[in-house]
Amino acid sequence: MIKESRYKRPDVRIDYVGASLLAIVLGMFVFGLSQGPVWGWSSISVVTMFVISALLVVPLALYEFRYTKAGGEAILNFRLLSQRNVMVTNLAIAISGMGMFLAMQALTYRFELPAPDGLGKSILATGLSLGSLAIGMIIFAPITGQLISRVGVKPFAILGSVIAAAGFLMQAFAPSYTMVMVYEFVTGSGLSMLNASVINYLILTVHPKDMGLATGMNGTFRNVGSAIGAPTAGSLLSTFTATYTVGYIGTHPIREVLPSQTAFYYAFIIAAVTFVAGLIIIYFGEEVLGRKSKMETEKRVYEVEYQTK
After folding, report:
1. pLDDT tens readout for residues 92-118
2. How far apart are the C-alpha atoms of 189 and 47, rounded to whole Å?
3. How many C-beta neighbours within 10 Å does residue 208 have?
4. pLDDT one-digit tens code per residue, 233-270
């Protein structure tokens, strides 16, 4: 049974302005990504959307900073983001989330598209083929949960990033369906370690009364990454194409323009790079469990007790 939190703040208002600004920033950027292969990356429309998206980041940041300073619960809360581990976890989850959704989108297309660059699977077979990823998560998530309190959060976060990056890197060179399934399992095991570590990094850093806000903001950063990752994959698959013969009507070949092997290669390489970038960010976080965190934990406990007196 899940116990209700004793920290309740019914007077908190939703940050509608911040949410709207963030939606516009992401919407313009994602729309530009999706239309780049169609309209041309140097077209005025696409460049304009990217420029507007970048410029709107400034008023978004200023508004959220002032909203936080005034005591509001901003969607991008700078009071929490000023804590190292909160910033580290949010940046890491946004970047790795982008890489994960980018790779998953590309992997789904790879399963369904016909040979030679696809695996020619049905929709049902594609869904079942992603089970290897889930099995890796199911096996290693409880193992990570049992060991993380003794070993620490940081080692598992780094290890998970390394394994996930290796899995996506191997996907770029996977020679057969069997090896794709094996590399999926590797990736799933790394993702389970990373996800379990990141959430512990976050909730063991913030005060219990801020836990809901911190996890909600973490979800926002995760959604930002996924919102960028999926259209990035679509953009790559639309940009790097080749013409294939997919059948015949009598003696006349039926040709279609489909994503090439180059598109899948770049998608998985970029995904691997994002997890390496996440690893570098995680390296700057402070340990919150294990032996190395003992002094820091005692310090935080003392500070909390001092503030409550």
Report:
1. 999 999 999 999 999 999 999 988 889
2. 39
3. 11
4. 999 999 898 888 777 887 888 888 889 999 999 999 99
Tokens 């009507």 correspond to: 249
The reply to whether 216 and 239 lie within a common domain is yes
CA–CA distance, 55 with 93 (Å, rounded to integer) = 24
Question: Does residue 308 have a pLDDT over 70?
Answer: no
Q: In this structure, is residue 7 part of a structural domain? A: no
Looking at the structure of the chain, the number of domains it has is: 2
Show which of 28, 48, 76 is a domain's final residue. Answer: 76
Question: Which range marks the domain in which residue 45 is found?
Answer: 12-76
Q: Quick one: tokens of 231?
A: 């259209």
Q: Do 117 and 48 share a domain, yes or no?
A: no
Question: Which residues partner with 253 through β-bridges?
Answer: 248
User: pLDDT digits over 119-152, tens only?
Assistant: 999 999 999 999 999 999 999 999 988 888 888 8
Other Cβ atoms within 10 Å of 13 Cβ, number: 7
Q: What is the pTM of this model?
A: 0.84
Encoded tokens for 113 = 């598209």
Considering the domain architecture, whether residues 50 and 98 belong to the same structural domain is answered as no
- The per-residue pLDDT for 305 is 47
Domain boundary among 49, 76, 103: 76
